[in-house]
Design goal:
The chain is an alpha+beta fold. The chain folds into 2 domains: about 5-65, Alpha-Beta Plaits, CATH 3.30.70.100; about 70-188, Arc Repressor Mutant, subunit A, CATH 1.10.10.60. It is built from 9 helices and 4 strands. The protein has helices at about 15-25, 45-60, 65-85, 95-100, 105-115, 120-140, 145-150, 155-165, 170-175, and strands at about 5-10, 30-35, 35-40, 60-65. Strands 2-3-1-4 form a 4-stranded antiparallel β-sheet, with helices on both faces. Helix 3 packs across helix 4 and helix 3 packs parallel to helix 6. The longest helix has 19 residues, at about 65-85. It is globular, with a radius of gyration of 18 Å. The chain starts with a strand and ends in a 13-residue tail after the last helix.
């Protein structure tokens, strides 16, 4: 019998590698590991679940048990995947995108997320977008106009206003930090 595990705090390819290594160390066969989920060829017994949970926790991840926790993790993973790892901007709004991807009505997703996380889905999206802007500005990968387009901001001026409100800095001030030491980007 196959089993799908939901894992909290997986945000990048390095996380996938870390989880794959944990499975190997525990001699658990995973068919596929992706952001937020692992697909197993066999169902785990209670001892394996406990060992895996301890191992993942030691790596900064969390094996999720409840359906609501799993859904919250899927919401976050879907948003992070779209903002941080998908090069193409959305052609629909995030509410429609999440509803389609997760097969739930957006009002339900929104209420659940807010009640568990203490912030709205829209706030989480803004936080993720600002972190992506920071990453792109810091790396100097693309011009500000292109950043605004990729992240579905109507204009550089609008992006600048949101960025200033969230970080307390202008885009130019943040770009000047490139020479300074960089702190890690928080995505969860």
């Amino acid at each position: 019998m196959k089993e799908t595990l939901h894992i909290k705090n997986m945000v990048c390819p390095r996380c996938i590698t870390a989880v794959e290594n944990a499975f190997q160390e525990l001699d658990i066969s995973a068919e596929k590991v992706e952001l937020g989920q692992a697909y197993l060829s066999e169902e785990l017994n209670n001892t394996q679940h406990e060992e895996l949970s301890i191992k993942l926790t030691s790596l900064g991840f969390e094996l999720l048990a409840s359906n609501k926790s799993q859904l919250i993790s899927e919401i976050k993973t879907t948003i992070i995947q779209q903002i941080h790892h998908n090069p193409e901007p959305l052609t629909v709004n995030f509410s429609d995108f999440l509803s389609k991807e997760l097969n739930y009505d957006y009002p339900y997703l929104s209420r659940l997320f807010s009640s568990v996380e203490g912030i709205t889905i829209n706030r989480f999206i803004v936080i993720q977008k600002i972190e992506k802007v920071k990453e792109l500005l810091f790396n100097g990968e693309i011009p500000t106009k292109e950043i605004a387009d990729v992240l579905n901001y109507n204009s550089v001026a609008y992006l600048s206003g949101v960025f200033k409100k969230e970080t307390g800095m202008t885009l130019t001030q943040f770009k000047e930090l490139r020479g300074s030491n960089r702190k890690g980007i928080d995505v969860w």
